Amino acid sequence: MTEPLPAREAPADPALRRAALLFAATLAAVAAGPFVLDAYTVNILIRALLYAVVALTVDVLWGYTGILTFGQSAFFGIGAYAAGLAFTHLGFSPGVAVLALVGGIAAAGLVGALVGWLAFGYGVTPIYVSVITLVLPIVVTQLLFSGGTFTGSSSGLSGFDTLDISIEAWFWLAGGACATLTFLAWIALRSDAGRLLVAIRENEGRCQYLGIDTARLKIGLMALSAAVAAVAGYLYAGFTDVIAPELAGFVFGTQIVIWVALGGRGTLIGPVVGAVVIEVVSAYLSGELPYVWNLVIGAVFVLVIVAAPGGAAAMVRRLWIWTGRGRARAGPGPAIEVVPAAGGGPLPDEALALEDVSRRFGSLAVLQGVSFRVRPGELLSLVGPNGAGKTTLMRCIADGTERSGGGVRIGGHAVGRGPPAECVAYGLGRKFQTANVFDGLTVAESLRVARARRETPSLWRRSATLRLPAAAARVVAATGLDERLADEVVHLSHGLKQALELAMVLALEPRVVLLDEPTAGLTKPERTLIGTILTDLVASERLCVVLVEHDLDFVRQISSRIIVLHQGRVALDGSVAEVVGSELVRSIYAGEPQALAEA
C-alpha cells in the first residue's frame, strides 16, 4: 500500500475573497440605505428583501438540486400566520414572540419533511414533487379560508401588536438577513458537501449507485428550506402587521419561481436581485398599469425561458466571458492522497451468490432461475447473445427492487427489495454500460462525491487534497486523469469518462464490482489498459469482479471463469477453456458470425 501523502494547506481562494468583499460592500449599502432612500422606497425594499430570502430557498432547491417547487409560498404563509395568530389571540410579549417563531419554524419544517417524504421516494419521477408543491399552497389556503374568525378567513388578520422597532431597524434586519443568508449559502454550496446537491441535480441515479441516500438529503433540504421561508414570513407579519391567505397561495408561489427564472437559477445572487428589482418596479408601475404590468412580466418570463433559460445572470456571465475578462484557466487541481482501505473484516468465502433469480415484465420472462456463486479474487465474465438478459441480471444484482423473484447475497448479506444504496452498503459497486458520470462537476469533485459514503464532506470548505484508496488512485494515474482533476467531466473523451466511472466505483472500496461492457467504444490500447488494471486489482485487492462483455477475445484474456446466458437462463458455467471450446457456445452464437469466429 502506498504511504499516505501529507495533507497540504488550502491555497488562498480568490473567489472567496471576492465574495467576502462583495458581502462587506452589501452590508455597508444596507447600513446606508435608510439615510439615502425615501421612506416609501425603504418600505418596499423591506418586503422585497424578505421575498428575496424565499427566492433564495427556491434557487437552492431548483437551481442547485433540480427540485422544481411551487410550494415555498405555503411555508412563508405558515410563518406569517404563526406570528399573526399568536399576536392576535395571545397578545404581544417577548415570550409569545419567541413561541410564535419556534412554532412557525417547527410547523413549516414538519410540513416540508412530509412533502419530501411523499415526493422523494425511490423510483418517483421528478415531476411528482412539482405536482405536490402545486397542491400544497391550495390546501394551506383552503385551511385558512375555513378558519373563520380564528384565521380571519379570506380577509386575514391585521392591526395586531408586533415588534416595536423603527423602519430603519426593519430595513437593517431584512437586508442583513438576506445578505448574510446569501453569503452563507454561497459558501455551503461550493463546499465539498454542497457539491452533493449539484451531483443529485446532474445524475441522481449515479448518486444512488454510489451509496448516497438522495431521498434523505432532499427531505432534509426541503425541511430546511421550509423553515427559512417560515422565518421570512414571520418577519413579514411582524413588519406589516397584516396577513392574508394570498401570502400562502399558488399565485405567490408561482411568482417566486418566475423571479428565480428571470434572475438566473443556480446563481444565488440572480434570484435575489430578480426578486428585489421586480418587486420594487412593480410597486411603482403596477398602480399605473395594473393589468398591463402583469402581462409584461409574463411575456418577459416566456421570452427568457425560450431565449435565455439561464436568466439574466447567465446573460451577464456570457457577456463577461465574451469581453475576455471572464476567461479563467482551470488550476492544477488538488493533490491526491492515497489512504488505507477502510476494511470490513475478513473476506467471506462467498463474495456474491444468486439463487433462482428471475425477472418478468408482465407475461415476458427475461430471467428464469439464474443461480451461481462467485468467490473473492475471481473475475467472472457473463457472455451471451443480444437479448440473453445480461444487463437485466446486473440490474437485479445491484437493485433489489428490480427482481421479480429469487435471492441475492453480497458478502454473506441477504439483499432484500432495497434500493441501490443498500446494496452499496454491503460492498457492491456498479459501472454502467454507458459512462454514467456527472457532466457538470470536475473530475476531482466527482471523485469526492464517490467518497462521500466513506468520508463525510465538509459543509464549509473545499479540501485541498483528494483522498482515494489505492485501487482508485491507480486508475486515475494510469489513465491520465490525475492531470485533468480540475477539468469539467463534460470535456473528457469517451475513454476518460469510462475510466472516471471505474475510478468512482473503486473509490467506494467495494468487494464486488459489476462492470457492464467497460470496453465499449474504447480503442485497443485503452481496452488493453483496462484489462491489465482489472486483472491486477483482482489479484492484489482480492476483488470479486462480474463482467458483462461482447468482446470474447478480451474475455478470454482476463477471465478466470465464464458463464454463458441464453434466453434468460444459465446455459454454461465453467473455465475459460471449457466455455471457449464448447459446441454449445458455438451453437448459441451461430447467428453471430463474428462472435463465433472469436470463440
TrEMBL record:
It is a multi-pass membrane protein. It is found in: Cell membrane. SUPFAM superfamilies: P-loop containing nucleoside triphosphate hydrolases. Residues 352-592 form the ABC transporter domain. It holds the Pfam family BPD_transp_2. Its main location: membrane. InterPro entries: AAA+_ATPase, ABC_AA/LPS_Transport, ABC_transp_permease, ABC_transporter-like_ATP-bd, LivM-like, P-loop_NTPase. PANTHER family: CONSERVED COMPONENT OF ABC TRANSPORTER FOR NATURAL AMINO ACIDS-RELATED (PTHR45772). This is Vitamin B12 import ATP-binding protein BtuD. It comes from Methylobacterium crusticola.
